[in-house]
Amino acid sequence: MKPLLRIAWLAVFLIGFSVLVSLQFMWLPVGSDVLGFVRFWLPIAGGLIFVLGYMLPREPAVWAAPLLAYLVPAAWFRRAEFVDPLAILLLLAASAASAFVFRRYLST
């Protein structure tokens, strides 16, 4: 039962992560290079976060992966306006909550 709960928890976390990243770039025009990059990067980052979170749930450093994945488009295009401080705080709080839940209840 715990593996299913772990998958469900990670799925909810990744849905929230995807919405947060989508909101970050929703003001860009449709044919933007940045949107093309995000469409490519988001599934890769989500897969990486899922695998790390599922395989290494007790490692606190694993929960830094969402923050790094969130910052990659800003670093790739060297544009600070892609970084929203409120979104970073929300992502850190969600990662901390996920790390706590995994360590306390869902790790084997």
From TrEMBL:
<keyword id="KW-1133">Transmembrane helix</keyword>
<feature type="transmembrane region" description="Helical">
    <location>
        <begin position="61"/>
        <end position="80"/>
    </location>
</feature>
<feature type="transmembrane region" description="Helical">
    <location>
        <begin position="34"/>
        <end position="54"/>
    </location>
</feature>
<keyword id="KW-0812">Transmembrane</keyword>
<protein>
    <submittedName>
        <fullName>Uncharacterized protein</fullName>
    </submittedName>
</protein>
<keyword id="KW-0472">Membrane</keyword>
<feature type="transmembrane region" description="Helical">
    <location>
        <begin position="86"/>
        <end position="106"/>
    </location>
</feature>
<feature type="transmembrane region" description="Helical">
    <location>
        <begin position="7"/>
        <end position="28"/>
    </location>
</feature>
